[in-house]
TrEMBL record:
Binding site for substrate: R346
GO BP term, example: glycine biosynthetic process, by transamination of glyoxylate
Family (UniProt): Belongs to the class-V pyridoxal-phosphate-dependent aminotransferase family.
Entry keywords, A to Z: Aminotransferase, Pyridoxal phosphate, Pyruvate, Transferase
Protein name: Alanine-glyoxylate transaminase / serine-glyoxylate transaminase / serine-pyruvate transaminase
Gene3D superfamilies, per the entry: Aspartate Aminotransferase, domain 1 (3.90.1150.10), Type I PLP-dependent aspartate aminotransferase-like (Major domain) (3.40.640.10)
Cofactor(s) it depends on: pyridoxal 5'-phosphate
Organism: Novimethylophilus kurashikiensis
Record-listed E.C. numbers: 2.6.1.44, 2.6.1.45, 2.6.1.51
Lineage, uppermost ranks: Bacteria, Pseudomonadati, Pseudomonadota, Betaproteobacteria, Nitrosomonadales
Residue positions where N6-(pyridoxal phosphate)lysine is found in the record: K197
GO molecular function, one term: alanine-glyoxylate transaminase activity
InterPro entries, alphabetized: Aminotrans_V_dom, Aminotrans_V_PyrdxlP_BS, PyrdxlP-dep_Trfase, PyrdxlP-dep_Trfase_major, PyrdxlP-dep_Trfase_small, SP_NH2Trfase/AEP_transaminase
Domain Aminotransferase class V: 34-337
């Protein structure tokens, strides 16, 4: 007879999911009610307001998609992009490549702007592409590239898109709640994120927001949205305003309790304080990593505080280090993806997991495991270097 599943306690310091706050887990254990219950509808309205705060927007169409960040990505593309459209796609890692795939599946033409993995998107290249391709529908790019830890200038790229009459479509899966993001001030038209990174909720929900201009394009499409489930013209009947809601799908009720609680926690801390906390913990981790003699992939000015990509030292088995960290310390860090597989580690400092204890545990554990595997590092210095930052 199969027993109940009881997972071990882990410290999640990879590229996501991050540690989930006990308050969020407790919220998810509350009684399930109907997805059209007036009390649940009232909670949905609160959730929209909390997301507007997190995104720093007044966009009326701001809501969580019932699905992970990838579903939020598809929701943005299938609603805004039609067959025959031209879309500039900036790729500087794995997730720009997924944007390209979405554009192609919408029957549109992707115009690629390529940058090296670990580099930010080059705004000059974006402008060159806009000049060379009149009539572009949108400029799609990743604000926080999870595969490398590089952060691009969302404000500058969005301004360029508008200057040439295009929408800006932005992936903020890893940036929402962890580093400055201002949808209205930066002029972002369509944006998607994930619940499991800096918001520290469980995976499975994707906050999205659309500007009034994007909403007009969605309402006035020439063709049907290719996905029934993600068609916002239908979904808006459920996530719209007012007490009367039209049934579209059964929302993941308890997961939405969790997202609501995670956003309440963010509001209690204050966005600017959350951004500052992620920055300080990054600086402490950075001090310890560099004291050991290890180096970062991304240039300092383009580096995400919540996702730290570190080169694996020469002669060290990447997978062996991660296995020992998990077995001996219950600590998960991430491997490299694509071109960076086996060459880097990705250390997350996201949401509830972004704290001094985790930074110090991670540095101590990494130093111990690397020493045991014979890596050429400076020993006994990492934790002290991080502590200096905190003091």
């Amino acid at each position: 007879m199969t027993a109940s599943f009881n997972p071990p306690q882990r410290i999640l310091m990879g590229p996501g999911p991050s540690d989930v706050s006990p308050r969020v887990l407790a919220a998810m254990a509350r009684p399930t009610i109907g997805h059209l219950d007036p009390v649940f509808v009232s909670m949905m309205d609160e959730l929209k307001g909390l997301l507007q705060y997190a995104f720093q927007t007044k966009n009326e169409l701001t809501m969580p998609v019932s699905g992970p960040g990838s579903a939020g990505m598809e929701t943005c593309f299938v609603n805004l992009v039609e067959p025959g459209d031209k879309v500039i796609v900036c790729q500087n890692g794995v997730f720009g490549g997924r944007m390209k795939e979405n554009v192609e599946r919408c029957g549109a033409t992707p115009i690629m702007v390529m940058d090296d993995w670990g580099a930010a998107v080059d705004a000059n290249k974006v402008e060159d592409a806009l000049k060379a391709n009149p009539g572009v529908k949108a400029v799609a790019f990743v604000h926080a590239e999870t595969s490398t830890g590089a952060q691009s200038d969302a404000q500058a790229i969005s301004a360029l898109a508008h200057r040439y009459g295009a929408l800006s479509l932005v992936d903020t899966v890893t940036s929402l709640g962890g580093s400055p993001l201002k949808v209205d001030e930066w002029g972002i038209d369509a944006i998607y994120s994930g619940s499991q990174k800096c918001l520290s909720c469980t995976p499975g929900l994707s906050p999205v927001s659309f500007s009034a201009q994007a909403l007009e394009i969605i309402k006035n499409r020439k063709t049907k949205v290719q996905s029934w489930f993600m068609d916002l013209n239908l979904v808006m009947g459920y996530w719209g305003t007012g007490a009367k809601r039209a049934y579209h799908h059964t929302a993941p009720i308890n997961a939405l309790y969790g997202l609501h609680e995670s956003l309440v926690i963010l509001q209690e801390e204050g966005l600017e304080n959350a951004w500052a906390r992620h920055r300080q913990n990054h600086m402490a981790l950075k001090a310890g990593i560099e004291a050991m003699g290890l180096s970062f992939v991304v240039k300092e000015q383009d580096r995400l505080p919540q996702l730290n990509s570190i080169y694996v030292p020469e002669g060290v088995d990447d997978a062996a280090v991660r296995r020992l960290l998990l077995e001996d310390y219950g600590l998960e860090i991430g491997a490299g993806l694509g071109a960076m597989a086996g060459k880097i580690w990705r250390i997350g400092l996201m949401g509830h997991a972004s704290n001094m204890r985790n930074v110090l545990v991670c540095l101590g554990a990494l130093e111990d495991v690397l020493s045991r595997l014979g890596a050429s590092i400076n020993k006994g210095v990492a934790v002290a270097a991080a502590r200096k930052v905190y003091s």
